[in-house]
Recover the amino acids of this structure.
């Protein structure tokens, strides 16, 4: 009789524990979900640097609605390399999280990155979390 | 009539030429901006933007800074998501900008020892503009001018509402710091 009650208790404790651990794990997974990995995302657009820049110059609001926060494959010619930035066609600035080697000025290149908007001070479109494809 | 036109053209040329000669511009695309709104004994609420743009007109001491909101990175992904979607609404307001003046600025008197200058100007973010004033440390080495400083802002000043549920975890006073290394 006593053993039976104990078994029931044990079962209850185990169920409660499993339930608690389960919700805990779910909550943790939600609170500390993995950061976005732009380099492994499928890109939403493939554009040339010139086209992206032209669209932003024509209408920043429209271009933001289309490209902002999206992963983009960008084609163009490297015109400058500064610190962790690669500048494409003088018009698009690509920021890298990790140090980059010299990709070579005047070289044709495809860069994958996230569009973060238009920089009016320099008149350039900015991408971050870039990788060279 | 013709002389008027000529005068006008001459005037424009003169302005352009003088702008070329006197308008010494120092700039950066990799300005560093940080903000922190942490409360003690709660999780760190802080973000960093390493790609802020800044332009300094050294003849007049005019300073313009622009930061794209999506460029602010948090350690915790969910925090970054909430920041963008619920607080600053970066889809609607993609940038923050500062336009101001460094009082009594004279590039020729700068040295490698940082001097203090008062910077006043207008900070625009989340579609709202507010006047900010702070003291910046400015130094110069070769063709590089470094401006370091910070100021406090309140989310309420920019129409950013912190929900009651998290108000204990997010400070009412947000400390913003900047480090701009500008070159010619």
């Amino acid at each position: 009789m006593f053993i039976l009650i104990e078994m029931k208790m044990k079962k209850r404790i185990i169920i409660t524990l499993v339930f608690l651990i389960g919700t805990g794990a779910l909550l943790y997974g939600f609170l500390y979900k993995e950061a976005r990995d732009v380099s492994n995302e499928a890109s939403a657009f493939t554009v040339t640097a010139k086209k992206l820049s032209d669209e932003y110059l024509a209408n920043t609001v429209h271009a933001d609605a289309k490209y902002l926060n999206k992963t983009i494959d960008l084609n163009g010619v490297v015109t400058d390399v500064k610190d962790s930035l690669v500048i494409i066609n003088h018009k698009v600035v690509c920021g890298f999280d990790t140090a980059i080697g010299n990709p070579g000025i005047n070289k044709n290149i495809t860069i994958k990155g996230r569009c973060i908007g238009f920089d009016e001070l320099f008149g350039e479109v900015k991408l971050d979390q870039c990788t060279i494809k | 009539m013709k002389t008027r036109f000529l005068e006008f053209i001459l005037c424009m040329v003169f302005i352009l030429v003088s702008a070329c000669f006197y308008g010494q511009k120092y700039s950066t695309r990799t300005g560093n901006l940080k903000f922190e709104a942490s409360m003690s004994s709660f999780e760190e609420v802080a973000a960093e933007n390493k790609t802020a743009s800044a332009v300094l007109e050294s003849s007049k001491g005019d300073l313009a800074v622009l930061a794209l909101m999506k460029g602010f990175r948090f350690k915790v992904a969910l925090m970054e998501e909430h920041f963008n979607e619920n607080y600053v609404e970066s889809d609607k307001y993609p940038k923050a900008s500062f336009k101001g003046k460094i009082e009594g600025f004279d590039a020729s008197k700068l040295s490698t020892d940082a001097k203090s200058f008062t910077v006043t100007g207008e900070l625009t973010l989340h579609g709202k503009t507010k006047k900010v004033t702070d003291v910046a440390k400015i130094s110069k080495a070769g063709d590089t001018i470094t401006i370091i400083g910070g100021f406090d802002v309140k989310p309420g000043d920019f129409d950013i509402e912190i929900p009651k549920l998290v108000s204990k975890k997010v400070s009412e006073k947000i400390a913003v710091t900047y480090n701009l290394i500008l070159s010619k």
